[in-house]
Design brief:
By secondary structure, this protein is mostly helical. The protein is built from 4 helices and no strands. The protein is elongated.
Length: 98
């Protein structure tokens, strides 16, 4: 919607919040799976857990912990990308109005 040659007014938050959440979580989930596969194909989780606080952790539990660590890392990367894709006009308008 335009009013007298002004910038278009967005009537809703675009893209929707659920789409932004999925656009962060889904790619990070896929890349965490790939990173876990590659990492544990090279390194044995049993030898990595030896000098840590959890020496009695099973290999399967180590895979799970590794996956969630990789998921957190890749999700933070996707979240930062989503954050920096937001237009700066919305922040500038808030500063001018306040």
């Amino acid at each position: 919607m335009k009013i007298d040659n002004q910038q278009p007014i967005l009537t809703r938050d675009y893209p929707p919040r659920i789409q932004r959440i999925i656009s962060v979580l889904w790619p990070s989930f896929l890349f965490a799976g790939a990173a876990t596969t590659i990492f544990f194909a090279i390194f044995d989780p049993h030898t990595l857990m030896g000098p840590t606080w959890f020496p009695n952790l099973s290999r399967l539990a180590s895979y799970g912990v590794g996956f969630f660590i990789f998921w957190a890392l890749t999700a933070s990367s996707s979240l930062m990308t989503c954050f920096f894709l937001r237009p700066t006009d919305t922040f500038n308008d808030r500063k001018i109005k306040n």
